[in-house]
């Protein structure tokens, strides 16, 4: 069983080694071999697999998602673990902006300060929506911060979730929770806005790699 949350750029573990072996078996070479570390070679091989699956443009970004990883597993003989559930909250939350989908993906190229591979990359996912649309907790957790001191991120909220990741909600027009407040999955945290460095109203949504947030120490959001 492979956990999607384990197969992320910059991590090192046995799940990545399993995926690397699968990529090599599908004809996508990784010069360094199946080391268990997800670096640039693995990202290039995974992008080749995404293209082989029919992904196009920014969707073929070399960053595993549930759909592409499940398809690879079906060919290679491994299964992908089910999405996390939320037994103490309001059940599975499909989006931090209910009824809205990702409009600009994690790791997309652009004029950004984060340059893990030498070019500007997007540190999170954007969900375009009208000002005032609610944003919600994707998991149970505790509000790590809620303030207007995010600089380019504008008004922002950090949610320290029960899976030990920090989810960051940025460019908000309103915040409805306070530092230290306990929240449940699906609970409203604030509203979409365009504060900080934003070209229009949207939620910029990030997930930390580990249990604390710092700029650029992020992974493709999943919950």
UniProtKB/TrEMBL annotation:
SUPFAM superfamilies: Duplicated hybrid motif, PGBD-like. Pfam families: Peptidase_M23, PG_binding_1. It comes from Streptomyces mangrovisoli. Residues 121-210 form the M23ase beta-sheet core domain. Coiled coil: none annotated. One of its GO terms (molecular function) is metalloendopeptidase activity. This is Peptidase. CDD domains: M23_peptidase. Residues 13-70 form the Peptidoglycan binding-like domain. It comes from the Bacteria.
């Amino acid at each position: 069983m492979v956990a999607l949350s384990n197969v992320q750029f910059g991590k090192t573990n046995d799940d990545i080694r399993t995926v690397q072996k699968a990529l090599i078996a599908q004809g996508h070479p990784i010069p360094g071999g199946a080391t268990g570390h997800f670096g640039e070679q693995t990202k290039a091989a995974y992008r080749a697999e995404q293209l082989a699956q029919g992904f196009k443009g920014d969707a073929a970004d070399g960053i595993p998602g549930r759909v592409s990883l499940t398809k690879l597993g079906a060919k290679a003989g491994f299964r992908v673990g089910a999405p996390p559930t939320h037994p103490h909250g309001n059940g599975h939350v499909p989006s931090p902006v209910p009824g809205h989908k990702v409009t600009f993906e994690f790791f997309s190229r652009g004029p950004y300060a984060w340059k893990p591979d030498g070019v500007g990359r997007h540190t999170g996912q954007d969900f375009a929506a009208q000002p005032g649309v609610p944003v919600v907790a994707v998991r149970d957790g505790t509000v790590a911060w809620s303030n207007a001191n995010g600089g380019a991120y504008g008004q922002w909220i950090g949610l320290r979730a029960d899976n030990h990741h920090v989810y960051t909600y940025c460019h908000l027009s309103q915040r409805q929770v306070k530092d230290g407040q306990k929240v449940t999955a699906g609970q409203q945290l604030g509203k979409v806005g365009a504060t900080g460095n934003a070209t229009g109203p949207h939620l910029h949504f990030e997930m930390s790699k580990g249990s604390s947030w710092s700029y650029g120490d992020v992974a493709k959001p999943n919950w």
